[in-house]
Amino acid sequence: MDIGIISMRYAKALLAYAREHKAERVVYKELKALSQSFETHPALKKTLDNPVLPTEVKLKLLCSAVSDTCDVSEQYKRFMQLVLNERRENFLQFMCMTYIGLYRKLRHIGVGKLITAVPVDDNTRERIKTAAAERLHARMELQTAVDPSIEGGFIFDINGYRLDASIATQLKKVKQQYIDKNRRIV
Questions:
Q1: CB 113 within 8 A of CB 157
Q2: CA–CA distances in Å: residue 114 to residues 10, 20, 129, 133
Q3: How far apart are CA 81 and CA 55, in angstroms?
Q4: What are phi and psi for residue 113, nearest 5 degrees?
Q5: Whole-angstrom distance, CA of residue 139 vs CA of residue 158
Q6: CA nearest 62: which of 76, 52, 51?
Q7: How large is the C-alpha radius of gyration of the chain?
Q8: Do the beta carbons of residue 96 and residue 37 sit within 8 Å?
Q9: From 47, 114, 117, 127, which residue has the greatest number of CB atoms within 10 Å?
Q10: What count of other Cβ atoms lies within 10 Å of the Cβ of residue 60?
Q11: Facing residues of 141 across strands?
Q12: Residue range 69-117, pLDDT digits in tens
């Protein structure tokens, strides 16, 4: 079967199960943490794909990837047990991303990422988050990152759109205009 079909079916089933038990927000936070663990620790996926490792060890690993104390919701634990019993752990990262997308769509949550050359204070972060939420008519999740290579200004990604007001991009544009102009002269 296709990765997208499998992950969508499992994510929809988990969302319905979590909604039934009024725990969709808790499961959302846990799956966000698991997704972050997949990104920061690539060995996690390789370990889960290991067929020799027993299911109990994999379950403990998945619980500790979310919480240091392995204190996770019953819905999360039962879902992970189902995934491991059905031998679908190689699709788990896609299931997490699909569930996160479904939950955000259900709760009207917009996602933004602000990249700046220097760290942004909390007041500025909240102002940007509020302004974006008013424009989108949705709640906002704003991630911030520091990238000194942009030299100044900012890059703001929101729901697939990018506003690039960085100094580095402006300098590239000026350089390209200069090159294009000098080509016509020769």
A1: yes
A2: 31, 35, 10, 14
A3: 8
A4: -135, 125
A5: 12
A6: 76
A7: 21
A8: no
A9: 114
A10: 12
A11: 111
A12: 778 899 999 999 999 999 998 899 999 999 999 999 999 888 889 999 9
Give the pTM: 0.80
Q: How many residues does the chain have?
A: 186
With b for 16 or more beta-carbon neighbours within 10 A and e for fewer, the 5-40 pattern comes to: ebbbebbeebbebbeeeebbebbbebbbbbbebbee
Contact 95, 7 (CB under 8 A): yes
Q: How far apart are the first and last CA of the chain?
A: 58
Q: What pLDDT band is residue 68 in, cutting at 50, 70 and 90? A: confident
The span from the CA of 29 to the CA of 102, in Å, is 13
Contacts made by residues 39-43, CB under 8 angstroms, sequence distance 24+: 41/65
Q: Is the Cβ–Cβ distance between 27 and 78 less than 8 Å?
A: no
CA distance 17 to 121: 39
